[in-house]
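Database export, one record per block. Field names are fixed; values are copied verbatim from the stored entry.
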Amino acid sequence: MAHAEQTHWWYTGMAAIAADWLERLPSRSSGLILDVGCGTGGSLRWLTQFGRPYGVDVHPVALQLAAQRGGQRLVQADVQALPFASARFSIVTAFDVLYHLNVANDGTALRELARVLLPGGWLLLRLPAHDWLRGAHDQTVHTRHRYTRNEVRTKLLAAGLRPVRVSYANALLLGPVVLWRVLQHCVAQPAASDVRMPPQWFNRALTALLHAERFCLRRFNLPVGLSVMALAQKEAR
């Protein structure tokens, strides 16, 4: 992952979409950002353009790799029990974290994310979409659940957050992935990750597709996709 997220089309393309959403926030206050489930630190590098990022992950090896890549302010902790004071961060990001088997209760996790946000602060969330898209990759990365757009909106409201945008993303590749999943179910496949580096020309083409989708998402939400993205705000008191 540490190697792939620097050049792989999915990591770079989805990061560009997430950065685009943050660039269009109407307000940011403290400049402190918390990236929950920061992994090997790929998001921490580009989040510096929006403030001072802190990284949290439960896995010590991930944090070690993040530190080697220049990550600072790294903390080992569980998303369901964050070791930070309430109302500290103006932005919290959680990219493909709450779906994991280690997150026993995504409602508890969302309430923790809301707790550490400043009033008026922003949560940017990304999750894998649709349980019917489960495949060998999900088994490998320990997927507990894949989400729908309405489900994410409901969970945000239950955590005391106001959904501002909830959209599917990575829509242009939904058709090919559905076919791939059907083939996997028809032919017994060992558990393996879908993340592998394609030929350079193909990687550039897929990256271009996600960048094109980034411009679409500036104008409207997408009705289908492989991921769910949500932007929510903690109400100012």
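Remark 1: Residues 200-217 form the longest helix (18 residues).
Remark 2: The mean pLDDT is 88.
End of record.
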